[in-house]
Amino acid sequence: MRGPHNIIRLVRTLATLERTGAIGVVLEAFKTPPRIRMVARIIGWPFKWLGLRGDPALPPATRALTALGPAYIKFGQILSTRPDVVGEDLAQQLKYLQDKLPPFPTAVAKRMIEDELGLTTDQVYSEFSEPVAAASIAQVHRARLVGTGQEVAVKVLRPGIERAFRKDIDAFYLAAGAIEVLSPASRRLRPNDVIRHFEGVVLGELDLRLESSAAAEFAANTEKDQGFKIPKPIWDLSGRQVMTMDWAEGINLADNAALDAAGHDRTVLGARVLHLFLSHALRDGYFHADMHQGNLKVAANGDIIAFDFGIMGRLDEYTRRVYAEILMGFIRRDYRRVAEVHFEAGYVPADRDIDEFAGALRVVGEPIFGMDASRISMARLLHYLFEVTERFGMQTRTELILLQRTMVVVEGVARGLDPHINIWQVARPVVEAYVANTIGPKAVLRDLTKTVRILARFGPRLPGLVEEYLIRQSEPPPPPPKRPVHPLIWLLTGAAITGCAVWAGTLI
After folding, report:
1. Domain span holding position 126
2. 98 Cβ partners below 8 Å, 6+ apart?
């Protein structure tokens, strides 16, 4: 699916960006290298007539992405939460994509529900509303159950969404490969791995049984969290294309005027959002990875309600410890320890100078700590840290993509509620408590006990495993595979040959 025939998808994408006037905005927002800009314009402009028109009422970037399809829309949703990457202007344009997309007909939704559940909607629901929210993957209806009268939210996938998504994602792989060819420096970012991660995340969203499972697990983990609520799924009315959950009423977390009118303390809410996210990520290793304002509401009693569990992040225990130690090092301004953690985890190549790296980290941290509380930013820290680790050869850690992205989003939500929030002050007790519980003497004893248990289980197999490893090491390595020529090279070569032929013809 990722062969030369996907070139037409890449051409269509660039042509649509040209036709909608979005290409200049996008290339500028990403600070694209001149070589890639030139190729993008050369490919997009002659084929502008092939581009999709989109809705002229929308801003250029949003217009282009909605015209191109679901995978592009989802990618735009992610970018809307990263003003540190794409700039404030483009991020604001893309926020339209979060929950204001055109819905599909209610009659189609009812038909999909009946196909999934094997029951008519009249048998299940005494009331069934028009869509109350529509996004790139699915839309939500408000309904009431027959018999009990319980109010529920019914989420229904967009028809044909999986097939459309799989077609679009192929173009992403082609673009990632083209970027690696045209800009070798980008290979450190592992564009193909980033797209593969994105593909896995969104494919999970296309099976609502997985979202139901995620909601149930998240609810179990957070059951004792004060001021936090998760609507629970109703399993017998859920399936691959349909998910039914408890209905939860609340004020959108982006509506500051309504929150103030209802008497909610936005300073408390902002701190709670950040505190909850860090607790879930560090304590549980399982966190809501799409925590923008559209997925968060405030109940009448002040509880924060989370929705939409299609994108969840999971971190193993070791990664959580590494991340916590890095944060703790910055909070304590212990840059030597932050450097050591990077080397211990293998994030930075062992042949680099640790003292030089620690000094570079100080350049990252000190200016941020010298700022006013309202300007201290996790997003800024991650941006500067990214620049430093790039210089020292650190590759993109795909397992941390969701965590880093969500942290930036959560900071934006918290600052939207309280512009003067001190991010470090709120984060410090959560991180310190985690470090004390997982890196202190009790944690060492717990780790030793676990190691002994594993060795006892696998001990009888160890001699055989060691022998197999030694045999494999003694075998000669296989010859390296030949790397195929990238399709874009053929495209550009063909264009160059054609241009030379035309030029030679004019001379004759």
Report:
1. 100-159+207-247
2. 77, 80, 135, 292, 293, 294
